[in-house]
Amino acid sequence: MKISDLLKRDTIVLELSATTKQGVIDELVNKLDSARKLSDKNLFKEAILARELQTTTGIGEGIAIPHAKTAAVRTPAIAFGRSTAGVDYDSLDGKPSHLVFMIAASEGANNEHLETLSRLSTLLMDTDFRQTLLDAKSEDDIINAINEKEAEKLAEETNTNLAKGSKKVLAVTGCPTGIAHTYMAADALKAKAKELGIEIKVETNGSGGVKNRLTETEIAEADAIIVAADTKVEMNRFSGKPVIQTGVTDGIRKPQQLLEEAISGNVPLFKGSGKSTENSGSSKGSFYKHLMNGVSNMLPFVVGGGILIAMSFLFGIHSADPNHPSYHPIAEMLMTIGGGNAFHLMVPVLAAFIAMSIADRPGFAPGMVGGLIAATGGGGFLGGLIAGFLAGYLVVFLQYLLKNLPRSIEGIKTILLYPVLSILFTGIVMLGIVGPLSSFNRMLEGWLGGMGTTNAIFLGIILGAMMALDMGGPINKAAFTFGIAMIDAGNFGPHAAIMAGGMVPPLGIALATFMFKRKFTKQERDAGKTNIIMGASFITEGAIPFAAADPARVIPSIVVGSAVAGGLSMLFNIGLPAPHGGALVFWTLEGSWILYTLAILIGAFVSALMLGILKKKVS
Predict the structure, then answer these.
(1) Does pTM top 0.85 for this prediction?
(2) Fewer CB within 10 A of the end CB, N or C, for the chain?
């Protein structure tokens, strides 16, 4: 497939009217939309802007390549816009951008499409080619220039062997989208290596998968390795070799500096730890990366399980209970799948993938077991966090202790020693932790029972805050258990405050993702939409992924909002005889449902406002 199969006359703007980065994006998105290349213009624009938040696509030398791979693209395409005066596109070199190529890749784009799209990025590294595009008089001139340059490039691509030279350097490039920067960095390194007389081979980690994969022999013979990537790269294979780790944009902007450093003989040796690691060019610390690995894998269980639970309540509050007159088998099935299984796996999955991020595959089993102990023992998601990091670093410690074993028994470490010892010691520690957590839970229940209802508003504040503090953990369960006890005693006020407090965290976060979009990633904004359903259904756990990813800002925000909602519920004298169901059981309320709804919305707004103030913009 040729680039001109994707770049057509009707997606070319010979002279952009926009004078700002945002205006250029809008103009090119509209051009693609008018050419019927997009199925959802707004969703595609959102994906383009999300990519810009990761790193600017204004790569310098007068070029910008905004790009996105999303289901909002009907047909893979390229839009081109030229600005004679130049546009401030936040370029890496601080200079105006004159040539802007917007790449639209469909979510199901095949490898041929992706390779063609990425080839365009590499053509733009040629100064003469860029000048030809600037001088072009018509759309046909631009397409003809691209066809001629692409033919040259395809001829070069037939030789994938190492470029010969006196020194051997290997490189790996990769960016989150894997369409443009990955291949531009690869071409920049290869071109500069040829100029410096350095033998090089570059592995690309792009959307089409790993290409030109480095072999064990090549790694063994290399003088040094450059990893220029902003995405996950298998690093353990480079153990004992001189390795430079940096961001993908450095591969584009500083190829000579990287190559000269690689052959200087002053590059530290990389110490493998038995795990895959992300490149240190990331702006976040390793703790955050391990945490997000757990959260992102836990999220489908939270969303899927939570919505199935909400669906079960459509048949009635007690319809999943075989012993209740309102029993319905479909409601029981939905509750069993969503609550009994998906939600039951939520904390173990969180712990397992945190541990796996730290210690690779050997960390998965002890993380899963530790998380399961936390879940069944009442440790909640906080117990899962402890289990994940405990298991991961315990495996790393075991790897260090066992590194000098005789070669004859080296093979049994992964299949026998690591799983047995890591599961044993993780389990022992976690069993020791869940006991105190359970005792703490009983102590809280006793304290709440002793408080009574002498100070109703203060009790509502306390109960609301407890529901948000650990979102399904022992503190939350203590408050919920107390509310059920009060219902049995005929006092319906406390449980109304409890449900209000439990609905606020997901609702407050959902509201914040709409009010303060730049404070949340694309994945978080999507999850925020599902939190509307989960919050309305009294499923507090919808807030867990957000709290796990940024506990210092999220937990105080939702605790304050839930406390406000709980206090207002008691102030408005609302009672609730139904133990669960959220908005689906508002018809059972004693008191004004309007005032109760107002209490919840005020609490959600307080949480959203605090999140907007406390959270930083996504970078």
Answers:
(1) no
(2) C
